[in-house]
Design brief:
This protein is of the alpha/beta class. It has a single domain, classed as Dihydrofolate Reductase, subunit A (3-Layer(aba) Sandwich), CATH 3.40.430. Helix content is 29%, strand content 29%. The protein has six helices and ten strands; from the N terminus they run ββαβαααββαβαββββ. The strands form two sheets. An eight-stranded mixed beta sheet has the order 5-4-3-6-1-7-10-9, with helices on both faces. It has a two-stranded antiparallel sheet with strand order 2-8. Helix 1 runs parallel beside helix 4. The protein is globular and about 40 Å long.
Length: 190
């Protein structure tokens, strides 16, 4: 069975974005981009909320074609253009794009069906609202949380309205020279 893997940057005090969605505090370097590339190599489906999907769609389809495109931009653009995309949205309708599906209802059933299909992992990038919904429905199998060395004080929380505790097992950690620590957890089945 495919795994749904939660992939999110967080401040040390547990926020994924500022109050207005600011993410300019997130640190990246080539080592982190290479590391993320190993994760996307193991996934053939990207899951987004509507807002994050629209942000990704405005950049990644052509990012690798720009004259100043970095190695990461070229590689991730190719992955993005080839990967199946699933969008969780109550307002967006099926958009008729290749490899793109909108789920607006019966989230649990639809995600469980997706997880049972043949293929590689499913990654959810960012998408705080969609992530909160998936977490509350117990659909996330693994977590990659990239803790950035900053205290925001306020913003959009990493976790919100968790209705009951979720036990996790630490699988691994990775420290990057830029001060980011990646924490990899697996959900412990009941």
């Amino acid at each position: 069975m495919r795994k749904l893997i939660f992939f999110m940057h967080s401040s040390l005090d547990g926020f994924v974005a500022g109050l207005n969605g600011e993410m300019n505090w997130i640190k990246f370097d080539d080592a982190m981009f290479d590391f993320v590339g190993t994760m996307t190599d193991q996934a053939d489906t990207a899951l987004y909320g509507r807002v994050t999907y629209q942000m990704m769609e405005s950049y990644w389809p052509t990012a690798g074609e720009k004259p100043n495109a970095s190695k990461h931009d070229k590689e991730h653009s190719i992955w993005y253009n080839n990967v199946s995309k699933v969008i969780l949205s109550r307002t967006m309708k099926e958009i008729g794009q290749n490899n793109t599906k909108v789920i607006s209802e019966n989230i649990t059933d639809n995600i469980n069906r997706l997880k049972q299909q043949d293929g590689k992992n499913i990654l959810i990038f960012g998408s705080p609202s969609a992530s909160h919904s998936l977490l509350n429905k117990r659909l996330v199998d693994e977590f990659w949380i990239f803790v950035n060395p900053i205290l925001l004080g306020q913003g959009i929380p990493l976790f919100k309205d968790i209705s009951e505790s979720v036990k996790l097992s630490l699988i691994e950690t990775k420290t990057f020279d830029i001060g980011v620590i990646a924490l990899h957890y697996s959900k412990i089945s009941k």
